[in-house]
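Morning - DLL inputs below, output right after.
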Amino acid sequence: MIWNEEAECMAPGEKTKLQLEKLQEVVERAYNNVPYYQKRFNEAGIGPEDIETLSDLEKIPFTTKADLRDAYPFGMFAVPPDDIVEVHTSSGTTGKPTVSGYTREDIRIWSEVMARALTMAGADKKDVIQNCYGYGLFTGGLGIHYGTQNVGATVIPISAGNTQRQVEILKDFQSSIITCTPSYALYLAEVLEKEGITGEDLNLKAGVFGAEMWTEEMREEIERRLHLDALNIYGLTEIIGPGVAQECMDKSGLHIFDDHFYPEIIDPQTLKTLPEGEKGELVLTTLTREGMPILRFRTRDITSLQSGECPCGRSLVKMDRITGRSDDMLKIRGVIVFPSQIERALLKIPGLEPHYQIIVTRPQHLDELEVHVEASPALFSDEVKHVEKAKEMIQKRIHDEIGLRVNVNLVEPESIPRSEGKAVRVVDKRKFD
Ligand code: DLL
């Protein structure tokens, strides 16, 4: 089953024509309606008329997360406020998040690409989709929701968390498709096994897993333990949310909905565009967004592209699963965390040395953060006499900053390894490539 055969199986020549047309329109819209783009174009000495071919895209300066933060909250919107019908923000918990604004047409496009994605996972009207992505400002919950409505399946808008209830509903409602992060899927499998519930007691046929990095090994484990096809979904708030790309049953890469999102791969050091097949940073341009058109967004996600027809019949270009980042952003239980946020919390506490290390592990299939930090005697005051008290205080400060609980380990001054180059702040023991 293919949701939109015309768009998903388009001949390459036709696709290029369509992409160029849409690109010229979106560049024009961005230039005329977003002061940020007008300024960047003027600085680069280009105008919308300079985009004559798809490769002219390379003339356009990149947009970064920092640019979007500077425009907080609504500075990147290209339409009057009255035309914005919904907003979302990136999943970080503090600092200025990046905001994404949608017109009615943007929401229609989102439900279109999400319907295509769910159809790749075999969804149709008969399916019962248990949607365990968080509902709210995070794009996961509502993005999947719009897709299920479009397909006509039954959505269970259960949102994230409350594992006991998830298990009950999985069993009682006989959910046929589950959508959540891959690490949560493994955690659920574990809880099910503990309760003696097997795949035969459930009705699951597919899972649509994303929002964080995962591996082929994790796919095999999830498929074995939950008895379903585990498929990868990719997306990001700045571009639209989930539904930028999705794996079909061939499981050989994620089809990018390239009639709406135009991909490039660049070398993150030289910023030069790389040829097809080479690994680098994914850069995305929204071809059809109205509310917030984004040109050449540096996703920082590392992948490669491959074109050509897929056994599923779709001609949409494919990207490899994400294997890393070109910056130090972490996703911990689906939440975006930058080490600098933890550093900021630590540096506000007198008596802590600016030497720390963040250790990320995944003991029971759920991410854990441990922060090792050097403490001098000055940390211990009248109120904070004991190590436990000091740890609690630091934990609370970090929690206030990033919204997640972490384990704090106080270590002697000079005990964290010094490095001659860039300090190694993060030791990620989860393996993704
Ligand atoms: O995570 C949107 C989403 C929701 C995608 C539900 C899939 C399912 P953000 O919170 O803005 O949006 O985070 C975007 O998450 O740049 C990647 O680093 C990472 N990411 C998303 N999907 C995948 C994936 C949502 N399938 C950031 N594999 C992106 C690896 C992923 N990383």
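Note: Residues 396 and 405 are 8 Å apart (CA to CA).

O.
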